Structure formats: structure tokens, C-alpha cells
């Protein structure tokens, strides 16, 4: 039985009332219009939905949610549909209603003195970054899917990404939140205060809840000053241990300068340069592994180039870095980032892949990569590990591409075997089975083993208190009870 089978199917009467409330641009019911909302970016899940709602504002959404709740109909929030774990895809029952806030896409206000931004859920992360930049500030959250990912989804999943090493995850940026709760009532916590000790920090409950507790409709985010200087370099290294030696050297110079510190395996880089048009390696030779380091500062007259060159010179001498290229222009900096950001796309083009978005203490990343590579090769001969990611915060995407020539479905049928093998090593290294992508529909089966006992029981009590009928994103996060 799927989770949504405990909910009611939407009746013609409910759909008519929703259509009357939201108007023609606020509801989709034709199967060809609804279909794109029923498959995730990785094409792992192919669900069905009775309708897609596209409300124009919080009041409209709240009324629509109240109607669905009264009818006992399940609702699946969906932002830019970029989830890596199927967390925004309806199940196969056809009973769910997908709710999209893409029409709520205004940046309402940026306060240059408070360094805050009030923003609606449907704004893409890229548009939010641009708005902050145009106001002379910076929204320090950057992920590969930022062109499509929307603020509501980014917050609901507590996205991490490339700048976590310096500014933390999405959670750390949230000062205030407005949420439509599963019964249609509105929690207005749009406060822009740094200090607000008034009981439970409810807003943090919704950040990372993966749409299981309500709809995030708008937020007040903490901004940062815009950097006055940025320097980026791509470095060739032997392995993850060398990458961490380089990380330690930059941190030793000045930890406050490290804006991003990303690791890429030679295998992953090879896929990018072979499969992504316009991506080429700006180094003389391919290397076993790479680091993309970015330094940035809002300080006036800071000589970041000198810091970068100084650290790299020491690392060349120590044999830690074998080659490096420093971006000489904004165009070159973006070209270096393209090599990193296109990893997920290159792996998609290479065939089926199994993603392990895991975290371990930073010091244990080399052991994770070594042990997991060996274990997976023993499991499926010819499997192609292509680990990459946010090594500066201990979050590695230990992704594995199918062996050449294998049937993609045959490979994907073994995803739990592969994920469990990697997870067992992650557990021994004191890590987590989901670092930044969340649990979604892919990993609820892991929750009892990793978060069982009092932790999962408490999460269920919170869920039951806020969404007693289990109508919000029912296939996500929680394994079936019992
Ligand atoms: C990234 O950092 O590019 C992603 O989170 C994507 C992935 O895991 O494939
Ligand atoms: Zn990532």
C-alpha cells in the first residue's frame, strides 16, 4: 500500500471548487499538463497526480489547502523539481495533488542596513542571488541546480552546496518564515531579528522538513556583504588526503577567506570533459583528483592573489599539488566552476547512476573514498565510482556510474545493495547517510536503522501533531509505520 492510499481521492466537486478559487492559471488537470510534475529530475520516480495547483499568493494557497484538508486529499509541494531523492514527486496512486508556488515569485524587499531579504517561495535561487547582488549584497547559498531550484524547496530541504564551508546550510540563513500549515492556517513568523528567544524556534522545524509539515510561502534571509575580491584556482592533486592537506594550508593562512573548497575525482572530471559540450580541462595533463578552491573577501585592498599564490607555492614545494591554474578573468572563473557544476549532468549522460550523498567528519573523507571504492568494485565489477563534492565540510557525493554496456535498469535494481554497502562504511566513520539532499522517497527505508528509537518516534510525534491526517508529502521522509 502506498502512503497516499490512506488519503482520499480528489472528487470532481473538490477540483471544481479549487478551479473556482484559483482561476484558470491556478490549476492544471489535463494529463499532458500534469505529467511534467510527476517525474523527478533523475527519472527515478514516475508518479501520477490528480491536479497541479499554482496559487497566486498565500491567502489563495491557504484556502486551497483548507479545501484539500477538509476532503482528506494528500498534497505534494514541488518547487523547481530538482530533488535528487524524489522528494517532490507524487506517488503512483493518482490521489495526490501537486502544489507549485512558482507564481509567488517576488523579491519583496532587501534591507541594506539589516542585510536581509524578504522573498517568496517561487523565486529561483539564481534570481534571488542576482537580486542580492544588484543591491550590493550576497546571498551565500550556491548549488548546481540554482537556475531552477526555488527558495521554497531550497529551504524545505535545508540545501547545502558550495558555500556551506563558510556560511553554513540554508538553515543558517533563515531569520523568518511564513508557512501554510496542513489545515490551511498560516504561521506568520516573518521576523527579521537576530535575537528572538521566545520559545521553540518553530521556523527551524519547517526548514529541512521536506514538505511534510506545511508549505513554506516566504522567508526572510540573512545576506552577506558582497565580496570585493574573489580568486579561484583548479589544482591537480594525487588524492583526497592531498586535497585535505591543501585545505589545511588555506585554513592556516586565514579560514575566513575560504568561500568554497570542492573535490573532484579524475573519473568524474573525465566524464565532464568528455560528455558536456564546452567543458575542457585547463591543465596540461589529467590528474587522479582535483580541487576547486575559491577565496573571497569583502575587505578593501586585500591581496587575495598573493595569499593564493603563497599557499600554492608551498604546496607545490611539498609535492601536494602537482599543477594548478588560477582564473585570470571572471570568464575563466566561471569556466572552472562549470567543470565542477556539470558533474551531476555528466553522470546523467553517462547512463544510470547511484548517488550516495553522505557526510563524514572532514578528516575521514580519504578513508571513506578508499574503502567505499574498493567495496563497490567488489560488489559490481566494472562499476565506475566518481566521487566529488564539498570536501571542505565533509560532504562527498559518492556517486557510482553503471558499468559500460550494462542495462541501466539492471544496475538500478541493485541500488539498495550499493547504498547499503556505502552506508555501512559511512556509519563506521561516524557519518550520515544523507548530507544535503535529504531523505525524499529514496531513503525512508534507511530511517529506522539510522534514526530509529526515540529520534524517529519524536519526529513521528511532531508530524502527527502538525499533520495528524498525514496529508503532506506522504511518500517522503517517513517509512510506513509498523
Ligand atoms: C552537487 O553538489 O553537484 C550535487 O549535490 C549533485 C549530485 O550529488 O549529483
Ligand atoms: Zn552537492
TrEMBL record:
Lineage top rank: taxon: Bacteria
InterPro entries xrefs: FAD-bd_oxidored_4_C (IPR004113), FAD-bd_PCMH (IPR016166), FAD-bd_PCMH-like_sf (IPR036318), FAD-bd_PCMH_sub1 (IPR016167), FAD-bd_PCMH_sub2 (IPR016169), FAD-linked_Oxase-like_C (IPR016164), FAD-oxidored/transferase_4 (IPR051264), Oxid_FAD_bind_N (IPR006094)
GO molecular-function term, one example from the UniProt record: catalytic activity
PROSITE patterns named in the record: FAD_PCMH
All copies of domain FAD-binding PCMH-type, residue ranges: 45-226
Entry keyword Endoplasmic reticulum: no
Keyword Flavoprotein: yes
Signal peptide feature range: none
Family: Belongs to the FAD-binding oxidoreductase/transferase type 4 family.
Protein name: FAD-binding oxidoreductase
Amino acid at each position: 500500500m502506498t502512503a497516499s492510499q490512506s488519503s482520499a481521492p480528489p472528487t470532481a466537486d473538490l477540483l471544481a471548487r479549487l478551479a473556482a478559487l484559483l482561476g484558470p492559471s491556478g490549476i492544471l488537470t489535463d494529463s499532458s499538463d500534469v505529467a511534467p510534475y510527476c517525474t523527478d529530475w533523475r527519472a527515478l520516480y514516475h508518479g501520477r497526480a490528480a491536479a497541479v495547483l499554482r496559487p497566486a499568493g498565500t491567502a489563495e494557497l491557504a484556502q486551497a489547502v483548507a479545501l484539500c484538508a477538509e476532503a482528506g486529499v494528500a498534497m505534494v509541494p514541488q518547487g523547481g523539481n530538482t530533488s535528487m531523492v524524489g522528494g517532490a514527486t507524487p506517488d503512483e496512486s493518482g490521489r495526490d495533488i501537486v502544489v507549485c508556488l512558482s507564481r509567488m515569485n517576488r523579491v519583496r524587499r532587501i534591507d541594506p542596513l539589516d542585510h536581509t531579504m524578504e522573498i517568496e517561495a517561487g523565486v529561483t535561487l539564481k534570481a534571488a542571488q542576482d537580486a542580492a547582488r544588484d543591491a550590493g549584497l550576497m546571498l551565500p547559498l550556491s548549488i548546481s541546480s540554482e537556475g531552477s531550484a526555488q527558495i521554497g524547496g531550497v529551504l524545505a530541504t535545508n540545501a547545502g552546496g558550495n558555500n556551506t564551508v563558510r556560511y553554513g546550510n540554508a538553515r543558517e540563513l533563515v531569520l523568518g518564515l511564513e508557512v501554510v500549515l496542513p489545515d490551511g492556517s498560516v504561521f506568520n513568523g516573518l521576523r527579521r531579528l537576530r535575537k528572538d528567544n521566545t520559545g521553540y524556534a518553530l521556523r527551524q522545524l519547517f526548514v529541512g522538513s521536506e514538505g511534510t509539515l506545511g508549505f513554506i510561502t516566504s522567508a526572510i534571509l540573512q545576506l552577506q556583504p558582497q565580496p570585493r575580491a574573489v580568486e579561484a584556482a583548479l589544482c591537480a592533486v594525487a588524492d583526497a588526503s592531498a586535497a585535505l592537506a591543501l585545505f589545511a594550508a588555506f585554513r592556516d593562512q586565514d579560514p575566513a577567506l575560504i568561500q568554497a573548497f570542492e573535490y573532484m575525482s579524475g573519473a568524474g572530471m573525465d566524464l565532464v570533459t568528455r560528455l558536456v559540450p564546452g567543458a575542457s580541462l585547463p591543465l596540461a595533463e589529467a590528474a587522479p583528483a582535483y580541487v576547486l578552491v575559491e577565496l573571497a573577501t569583502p575587505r578593501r585592498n586585500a591581496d587575495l592573489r598573493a595569499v593564493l599564490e603563497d599557499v600554492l607555492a608551498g604546496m607545490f614545494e611539498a609535492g601536494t599539488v602537482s599543477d594548478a591554474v588560477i582564473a585570470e578573468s571572471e570568464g575563466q572563473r566561471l569556466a572552472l566552476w562549470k567543470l565542477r557544476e556539470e558533474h551531476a549532468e555528466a553522470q546523467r549522460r553517462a547512463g544510470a547512476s547511484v548517488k550516495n550523498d553522505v557526510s563524514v567528519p572532514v578528516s575521514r573523507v580519504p578513508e571513506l573514498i578508499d574503502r567505499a571504492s574498493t567495496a563497490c568494485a567488489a560488489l559490481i565489477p566494472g562499476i565506475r565510482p566518481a566521487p566529488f563534492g564539498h570536501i571542505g565540510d565533509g560532504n562527498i557525493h559518492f556517486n557510482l556510474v553503471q558499468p559500460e554496456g550494462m542495462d541501466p535498469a539492471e544496475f538500478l535494481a541493485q541500488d539498495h545493495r550499493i547504498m547499503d554497502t556505502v552506508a555501512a562504511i559511512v556509519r563506521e566513520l561516524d557519518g550520515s547517510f544523507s548530507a544535503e539532499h535529504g531523505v525524499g522517497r529514496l531513503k525512508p527505508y534507511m530511517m529506522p536503522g539510522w534514526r530509529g528509537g526515540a529520534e524517529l518516534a519524536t519526529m513521528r510525534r511532531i508530524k502527527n501533531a502538525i499533520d495528524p491526517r498525514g496529508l503532506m508529502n506522504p511518500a517522503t521522509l517517513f517509512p510506513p509505520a509498523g
